[in-house]
Amino acid sequence: MAAPMYFSVVVTVTIVKLLLIPSYRSTDFEVHRNWLAITHSRPVSQWYYEDTSEWTLDYPPMFAWFEFLLSRIAKLFDPAMLEVTNLNYASFATVLFQRLSVIVSDFVLVYAVYECCQCVQLVGKKKSPHLLSQPMFVLAVLLLWNFGLLIVDHIHFQYNGFLTGLKLLSIARILQRRHLEGAFWFSLLLNFKHIYLYIAPAYFIFLLRSYCFTRSNRDGRVQWTSLSLMNLFGLGVVVLEVFAISFGPFIAMGQLGQVLSRLFPVKRGLVHAYWAPNFWALYNIADKAATAVAVRAKLLSADDITKATMTGGLVQEYTHNALPTITPLVTVILTLAAMMPALVHLWRRPCTPRDFLRCLVLCAFSSFLFGYHVHEKAIILIIIPLSLLAVESRQDGQVFLLLSTCGHLSLFPLLFTQAETPSKVCLMLMFSLFAFMSLGVLHSSSKKRPYCLPLLSPLETAYTVGLVFLQLYCSLGHHTLGLTTRLPFLPLMLTSVYCAVGVMWSWLKFYLITLTDMQHLKQS
C-alpha cells in the first residue's frame, strides 16, 4: 500500500479521535489520573501500597513507569491533577492532557499496523486499482478504525490502542520470522498489562517448536535432536531481561508479593458487573431459568435463593442457585482444556507464522469464553488478530464479520448516556458497513446467496439482523414498555446472552476450520 494512502487513513481516524475529546468519560479516566498522581508524588516503594483512592495501581510495573513518564508532561498542563488527595479531579486541562496522551500513544499502533500490512499474503489476489480489492488497505482500515478501540479508548477511556500496537508489532515480527524481536515485544507487552497472559501459551509453543527446535521429521513431527541450546539460551535471555528490568526493583525492595496481590486479586466474581458475552453469560441465564422452574416445582424455596447483583454494577462473589457454583479453579481448567487442541495442533504440525496466529486467536477465544471475571472489553483481544487472517482467507473473513458485529455491539452498554448514542451508532455502522463491503469484494465469489449479507450463511444473516432489533429494543422498546424500573437489568442481560451465542458460534466455527485444515488459505 502506498504511503500517501496509509497517511490519509491515519489522518482521518486521528481527526475523529480529536472530535471525541469532549465525550463521556468512565471511571477509568479517574483511575488513570490517580495513577499519574501516585507515580508522580509517591516514591517507587509506595506505588503498590498507596490506597488513598479506591482505584489503586493494579497494572504491571512497566505501565506504572509509563504513567510516571506521562506525569512529567502532565504537570505542564495542570499540576493539581497530580495530587493524590485530589479525587475525581477533572479540569479542562486534565481532560485535554489525558485524552491527548491516548491519541499520541496510539502512534505505536499506527507503526505496528503499517508493519502488519507489509506481511499480508497476496496469494491468489489479482492487482486492482479498486481500494476495496487491496488487502493491505482493507487491513489498515479494519485495524486503525476498529470500533472497539475507538469507543473504549477515546470515549470510555483506556490505553488499549497503545497496548494493541505492542501486540501487533510482536505479531508482525513473528510473521517476518524475526523470532527474538517478537519475543521481546510480547514480553514488554506482558509487563504493561497482564491480561495478555491469555495468549502467552501460543507464543510459548510456537517459539519452542519453531525457534528452539530447528528441524522436523518427514511426517512433520518435531525432531527432538534438533534442539538448539544457543537459540533456547538467547530466547531465555531476551524474556528474562525484560522481566528483570520490570520487576527487579520491587523484588529488591521485597515487594514482589504485594505487586502480585494487586495484579491478581482473588475476591472477585465469576462475571463482571455487566456480563461479558461468553459461556458464563449463558450459564448464568440457565441458572436463572432453572431456579425459576425449581421454585415453581417447589424443589427450591424462595427464601433460599441468593439475590443476584451480577448486572447491577457490583463486583463481588456470586453463588448460583440451581446449577453448581463456579470457582476460579474450574474456569482455569476449562480455559486450558479449551486451548489444548489448538496448542497440540500447533506443536504437532510444521509451524508457520500463520499457524501461530490462528493458535493465538484460539487462545484469546478460550480465555474470553471460559475465563474468570472476564471484562467485556476483552473481545478486542480476539477481533484484532483475527483481522489479519480475515483479509487473506474467505472462511476467516466469514468468522470475522460475525464476531466483530456481535462482539462490538456487546460493547454498547459501556456507553450508557444518551449523548453518546449517535457516536457509537455511527461509528459502529461505519466500521460494519466497511467490513462487509470490503471483505465481500475481497473474497467475491460467483456463488451469490440471495437475501444474505456478504460471506454469511442464511442463518448467520438472520442472527446478524437480529442484533439490529435487539439494539432497538434496548434503546427504545424497553423504556416505551415501561419496564425501566421493574426490570432495569433486562437490556444488559439480553445483550450479553444474545451476543454470547454469536461469539460461541464464531469460536466453534474457527476451531473447526483450524483443526480440520479446511484449506483456510484457499480463496474460494
Automatic annotation (TrEMBL):
It holds the Pfam family Alg6_Alg8. Pathway: Protein modification; protein glycosylation. It is an enzyme of class 2 (transferase). It is a multi-pass membrane protein. One of its GO terms (biological process) is protein N-linked glycosylation. The keyword Transmembrane helix applies. One of its GO terms (cellular component) is endoplasmic reticulum membrane. Keywords: Endoplasmic reticulum, Glycosyltransferase, Membrane, Transferase, Transmembrane, Transmembrane helix. GO terms for molecular function: dolichyl pyrophosphate Glc1Man9GlcNAc2 alpha-1,3-glucosyltransferase activity. Its EC number is 2.4.1.-. It comes from the Eukaryota. The chain crosses the membrane at residues 6-24, 136-157, 195-212, 232-252, 326-347, 359-386, 425-443, 455-476, 488-508. InterPro entries: Glyco_trans_ALG6/ALG8. Belongs to the ALG6/ALG8 glucosyltransferase family. This is Alpha-1,3-glucosyltransferase. It comes from Branchiostoma belcheri. The gene is LOC109477559.
